[in-house]
Amino acid sequence: MMTMDTSENVSVHTRQWTLQPESEYRFELDPNTTLAIKLVSGHAEIFGAELAEGKAYIFGQECKAAVFTWQGCTIEVTGHPSVEYLSDETPMSIYANVHLALEQMRVRALAAVDGSPIPEDEGDDAIGIDPPRVLVLGPENSGKTSVCKILTNYAVRAGQDWVPIYVNVDPSEGGWAVPGAVSAAPITAPIQTSTPAATLGSAATSAPNHVSSNALLPLSYWYGHAEMRRNPLLMDRLIRNLGENIRDRYENDAEGRCAGLIVDTPSSFAASSSSSNDHRLTMIKACVDAFQINVILVVGHEKLNVEMQRTYGNRMAVLKIAKSGGVVELDAAYRERVHKYQLHTYFYGHVMQPPPGLPSKAYVQGGEQTPDQTMHLSPLSASVNFGDIVIYRIGEETMAPSSALPIGAARVVSEMQPLVVEPAIGGSGLYNAILAILAPPNPDESERYDEEILDLPAVGFVAITALDIPNRRMTVLSPSPGSLIGRTAIVGSFEWQE
Ligand SMILES: Nc1ncnc2c1ncn2[C@@H]1O[C@H](COP(=O)(O)OP(=O)(O)OP(=O)(O)O)[C@@H](O)[C@H]1O
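A: This is the predicted complex of the input protein with adenosine-5'-triphosphate.
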């Protein structure tokens, strides 16, 4: 371990760690600090994505992660994490075995499509010729997202050109969009880890083209809230929409289909408080149906495992896998801050400065070589008329006072009903609101239907930063220049904070 002074008199805290085979270096960062990690020798990976030797990878925004090695390695770490330690107790060999079983399913599925001989089934169970479509369930902080990343990255690295689909139905996570969205994306390159503001890597929707060479093209629907219980019916519908889109995509791509898919879920699918019980089983069923799930992985939760065995064990593989001791308990305040980082990154991009003492060039952020300010986005603030965008809220009335109703009449709003929000009415809830801008509705009027809005994917997100009621205008912050006039938007419960 060494601490040294550079010519600029900045304290540089750099030290080397030697990792034994099958062990990992775990770290946690405080706000406003960054950490750089360089692989000096050997092989290492972060949630399944390999590190290139000699490159400094940078981490920030309270990132918590681990560098794992199968064969042993030496890494050089610069910066001051709040927590750092080595551990040789990891569930990685279990995860690798799961990967091998999934890989076998892919290979058999492809052989069946190509009409070549189907390899022998090495396991005990007859696994058929279906590609793996995996649902990952587990309680809060069990490491579901990390497991999904590891399994996806191993598939991408398998050397078979698999392009698995990663599905994120955890709206508090945000995936490649903003928190409140549920999405799916084909994964062509390993998902890098550098900040919780982009747990699943950066998306093409907000980054300019020149930095998004390996960016993903996710399909997103806007749920608009962090919590599943806010509107389970809407969630159910969006899950089914995602599933339908994926089935359409695969219709003419029998080989592509063989890579399978991995579904990351919110912890509320596993929570067993009695009030949420019905909903969560309905949500699990919605996923099983929508994504034609044939493998369920339960991360570290015996009761849920037994429940899933009972419900689905006769139709598919249900497997309990160990939780990693490295998974960090994230509290509500941390999750709140991460939502803020995610929204901010969506609009402004994010450049992480390397820790003091490292040159600001020559580091890698999120898998992209980002020498200068290329991850900085310049969002636009535009003033639009109230009438230019039609804004809906799903299944919640906020505006018209009940006194406007006939005496004795109760307002009945179905959970799924899109209601127009009138910005000119006080209490519209639009000030500082995040809106999802939807894809255009069907151009063929005869194909339209009342709830079509629920089935339109989100093409981008904007924030309303000012409302001028007397002049009927609002200021809208948007990461990309396209015109908003005539667009349809949905507002949820996420707020923009500078
Ligand atoms: N082995 C590890 N070492 C260090 N940090 C880890 C490790 N595994 C996971 N983490 C971190 O712990 C946190 C929680 O993990 P993760 O997001 O995978 O859990 P989750 O079950 O998906 O969470 P949620 O409760 O949000 O659904 C994340 O910040 C993740 O990066």
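The mean pLDDT is 86. The chain has three domains: 1-90, 92-321, 380-495.
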